[in-house]
Amino acid sequence: MKKKYKKYQNGKIIEFLKAECDSNSYKIDYETLKNSWRNNQLICDFVNKLFSEFSPTISQEDNRTKESGVFLVRKKDVAEFLQVFSPLQLRNDVRTKVNENYGVLNFGTSKGKTCDNVLIYPTKSIKDWIEKNIDFKSYTAKCKFYVAATRAKYCVGIVCDDKVKENSLPFFKSKKVVSS
Q1: 31-66 as b/e: b if 16+ CB within 10 A
Q2: Whose CA is closest to 114, among 127, 105, 122?
Q3: CA nearest 92: which of 69, 118, 126?
Q4: Dihedral angle sign, alpha carbons of residues 30, 36, 42, 48
Q5: What is the phi/psi pair of residue 105, to 5°?
Q6: Whole-angstrom Cα distance, residue 107 to residue 166?
Q7: Do residues 175 and 84 lie in contact, with contact meaning Cβ atoms separated by under 8 Å?
Q8: Average pLDDT, the chain
Q9: Element (H, E) at 43
Q10: Using CA atoms, how far apart are residues 68 and 141, in angstroms rounded to an integer?
Q11: Residue 69 to residue 22: CA distance in whole angstroms
């Protein structure tokens, strides 16, 4: 990026257009931009929290099933979540261990993809945001997480440690019957 445009990094595209482009050469359609034709409203509500400075995204889909939404998935339940939802697994990079029997992409290469369900293997900054409400230090990391979470039409699972306490996200409930 040219030095003169650095001030427009981190999502400042509107500021760039207003300052650097001829206003007669474009029109920003805010109404269309706020709509999602991929994700159900539960997913939209979740990702809206990432960028609260922007107008909330509204789902134009009725992609709701009884198991729609965003869930924390304890490590002990990952195998069952994979079996139940057959999600695309999303990770920051190849160093993250995944189940090789299911599809997998890195966050960055998943951009533009649509699938029914995803399972996200979170970075430390994602865990901190979800579990401790600590904002992302890196705008790029926040954007990559947004991209990952918005690939799914129905269900987003986010892997967490088995000891994580309940917070604003529900846990994926294992269907395994425990015998006494």
Answers
A1: eeeeebebbbbbbbbbbbebeeeeeebebebebeee
A2: 105
A3: 126
A4: negative
A5: -140, 155
A6: 25
A7: yes
A8: 86
A9: helix 41-48
A10: 25
A11: 41
> Alpha carbon of 99 to those of 17, 84, 119, 121: distances in Å?
43, 14, 11, 11
Pairing of strands 104-106, 115-121: unpaired
* Token pair belonging to 180: 């006494």
Q: Which two tokens stand for residue 55?
A: 């107008």
What is the rounded CA–CA span in Å between residue 81 and residue 55?
32
Q: Tokens 């995944």: give the residue.
A: 98
Instruction: Identify the H or E element spanning 168.
Output: none
Taking the CB of residue 154, how many other CB atoms lie within 10 A of it? 21
pTM comes to 0.84
β-bridge pairing 58-59 and 35-36: parallel
Residue 40 in tokens: 């159900």
Give the model confidence (pLDDT) of 86-129 as tens digits.
999 999 999 999 999 999 999 989 998 999 999 999 999 999 99
Asked if residue 92 lies in contact with residue 123, where contact means CB atoms within 8 angstroms, the answer is yes
What tokens appear for 72 in the block?
């924390």
Element (H, E) at 89: strand 88-91
Handedness of CA 163, 167, 172, 178 (dihedral sign): positive
